[in-house]
Hints:
By secondary structure, the protein is mainly α.
Amino acid sequence: MEISNPSPEVDSNDEQHLKMLSIFYYVMAAFDVLGLIVLGIQLLFVLAFTSGGPQPEAMRPFGAVFMLFILVLMGINLIMIVGNLLIAMLLPKRRNYTACMVVAGATCLMFPLGTVLGVFTILVLMRPSVQQSFDHGY
């Protein structure tokens, strides 16, 4: 038996799920900001230890590699903050389905909370009623 129009309850559930996911993405962005602050503090410590006093020559490359590693992590964290804020704004408006799917997939890489959030987002976005409700203007 095929139903041509989804029931209003399904639409309200979709709306509620999208709003909840949006809130969780704002929370995830806040956690990412905290992670960025921690990485910034670590970078300051590395700078303080590598720039002060006499050091053996063998330690200089280690400090540079560690600073580079922290800077790369900070860049990834900034990208995820922007992505999480973007999806948090787009989900309740039901706009740019592709961007929402891409950010949800990238969020899955942030184990463990991001994985749970990303999987639930993908499950909600894969519903036919949600797919049809999105504005597919890219």
